[in-house]
Amino acid sequence: MKRILSIVMAGIILGFFAVNSMALDMSAGVKGGLAMANLTGKDATPPRGGEKKILLGANAGGVFNINFAPMFGAELDLFYSMKGAHGVVGAVADNLKYDYLDIPLLAKFTVPMEGAIKPVVYAGPSFSILLSAKEEISGTGTMDGTTDVKDGMNSLDIGLVAGVGAEIGAGPGKVLVDARYSMGFTTTEKLTDADC
After folding, report:
1. What are the domain boundaries of the chain?
2. Is 152 helix (H, G, I), strand (E, B) or coil?
């Protein structure tokens, strides 16, 4: 069963400004980063066989953060994410490109340290809504082109996210640099009776 695996590197929150409300430390901001995605599972070879490679993409969106105590908090993200896989068979490239709306809900632990830089560890579930799915073939000459494959895909992917990062104080706000690993537990393609 093909499942999505993605790693987001060096996500950066810009304009992450804190607001005090009812003794809770709440903040919101925007985030963007580089995504490296692939498909995992026993049938996760490229569509036409060959070598499977990581597909590079991007993600961007908003972040809402609430700290219940100096060390413990929660983070809710809302991201547009590019995922999929890159397959190579000789000179032929076969790319599966999936666009998702990712909604991770993360428990966050901030390591108590003196100074402006504080390490952060977080983990939690993620809910991904499929926005589009395309297969792009190039290098064949006659079969080159893009095919919409969204109808054959599951529209919701439930997964798990874990990551580490560093919060850096920047005036009244913070900048966060992090790396996160996410793995979907839902099969990407709809299963038919013949697949069972």
Report:
1. 3-184
2. helix
